[in-house]
Each structure stands twice: as structure tokens, then as C-alpha cells.
Write a structure and sequence with these properties.
The protein is mostly helical. The protein has a domain at about 20-80. About 65% of the residues lie in helices and about 5% in strands. It has three helices and two strands. It has helices spanning about 1-15, 20-35, 45-75, and strands at about 80-85, 90. Strands 1-2 form a two-stranded antiparallel sheet. α2 packs antiparallel against α3.
Length: about 100
């Protein structure tokens, strides 16, 4: 059964791994659905809102991710956590030896 579910989880992870992006996209879709009830928000306006909103959400996500990656690679070595046997993380200068 895991052989069937693992690829599905991997595909779903492409879309929902970043929860904030998924929530933002759902919010854009919900806002569009609500605004479609107004006469001034027809097809072209709805399409422009959807495309613009999704592009803005993706750009924000890419910039935030790039900033986090940049921050992680430029941190001082004493600030980074190192992996320990057993999967535990420990800052290197805490004085506890393995």
C-alpha cells in the first residue's frame, strides 16, 4: 500500500508543502468566488484578479524562500544547529559531547 501512497504524497507535497502558499491560493480563490456575485466583477476582471493574485503569491513565496535560504547560508557557524546521531539537533557550543 505504501508503494501506491508514496508517489501520491510526493505529488501532493509539490502543491501543499508550503502551507502559507496553499492558504494564500485558497484565499484568492475564495475572494474571487465572493466577488463574482457583483455585476462589476465579470469574466475579464475575475481572470485578471486570479492571475495577478496567484503571480503575486508565487513571487512572495519565492522571495521569502530565497531570503530564508540566504539567511541560513550566511549564518555564523556557532549559530547553526548540527545533526546528531538519533536525529536530534544541538547547537555546537552548548558544551554537551556525544
Amino acid at each position: 500500500m505504501n508503494r501506491l501512497l508514496d508517489p501520491l504524497r510526493a505529488i501532493a507535497g509539490l502543491f501543499f508543502d508550503d502551507r502559507s502558499l496553499a492558504i494564500t491560493v485558497l484565499a484568492i480563490l475564495a475572494t474571487t468566488a465572493i466577488l463574482l456575485g457583483h455585476s462589476w466583477f465579470d469574466g475579464p476582471e475575475a481572470m485578471a484578479f486570479l492571475v495577478g493574485g496567484i503571480i503575486a503569491a508565487l513571487l512572495e513565496n519565492v522571495l521569502r524562500t530565497a531570503h530564508l535560504v540566504s539567511f541560513e547560508t550566511h549564518r555564523a557557524p556557532e549559530e547553526t544547529a548540527t545533526a546528531r546521531p538519533g536525529g536530534l539537533l544541538k547547537a555546537p557550543n552548548q558544551g554537551v559531547e556525544p
